[in-house]
Amino acid sequence: MLATIRKPNKHKMLDWLMSYLFLLPALTFFLIFVVYPMLRGIYMSFFDYSITSFEFIGWANYVTLYNDETFHKSLINTIVLVAVAVPIVIGFSIFVAMAIYKKSEFIRSFCRGIFYLPAVTSVVSVTVVWGWIYHPNFGLLNYVTNFFGMEPISWLGDPKTALMAITVILITTSVGQPIILYIASLGNIPTSYIEAAQIDRATPSQIFRKIIWPLLMPTSLYVIVITTINSFQCFALIQLLTSGGPIHSTSTVMYGVYQQAFLLGNFGIASAMGVILAIIIGIISIIQFKYLGNDVEY
Prior knowledge:
Blueprint: H1 2-6, H2 10-44, E1 47-49, E2 54-56, H3 60-66, H4 69-100, H5 105-120, H6 123-133, H7 140-147, H8 162-174, H9 176-187, H10 191-199, H11 204-215, H12 217-232, H13 236-241, H14 253-263, H15 267-292
Antiparallel strand pairs: 1-2
Helix pairs in contact: 2-15, 3-15, 4-8, 4-9, 4-12, 4-14, 5-9, 10-11, 12-15, 14-15
């Protein structure tokens, strides 16, 4: 009897082995292209690493960044970009989703396609179009403002407007997926909840705050976290339109990593910047999960 109890269950061992064999390709890819580069980046951040040297210098790269005003400016720009873009993306996505989810299937499909188009379009193509829109002499935006009697503005050449112009592009390219997700989530909310609230004479704002928003929280948590991470990693728009200028007014931490590593050859400094960015994203993500994920089932 005891021998039978202690005997390993061959079927469970086989299931365990097969499960990990199926996971092996994805796990190998994750370890090689995600975990190893992260660990390598942390390691490199403690070295004076360039094309001509590789010397351990401890925390010197971090001290350099702490005293670097350009890095401070890039960090502030990054935080402003995220702080402005994320709330607007969430609010606009919910507004559009609620405006069209009760429409006919044709209208819903048409709107989903229109809003999702920038998300699947090449970043370079979108950037080129926006570059022409912002052109100081021939741009569509200046043509419209000139119609109202305003003087032409160098949207990407003026430090006062350049970051705002980049933020607008980031918002337009970020709303596609959230709108699709919110439309799907709104369709899963039982209509009986809303009908019962209407019978009790609840106002539309009360229905949204007490019923719709809590039931949308799982989707909102995902959208907020992903949008925040993507906004922190904004690079292509800046690299193609402004190269961090004018006067570092659009420089971000992600662009600084590229600049230090591939333009200046300071791989140690670039790695340190990447580590700092990863820590900031990690801390913000933890805070978002803590305060927005209390009622979310995982």
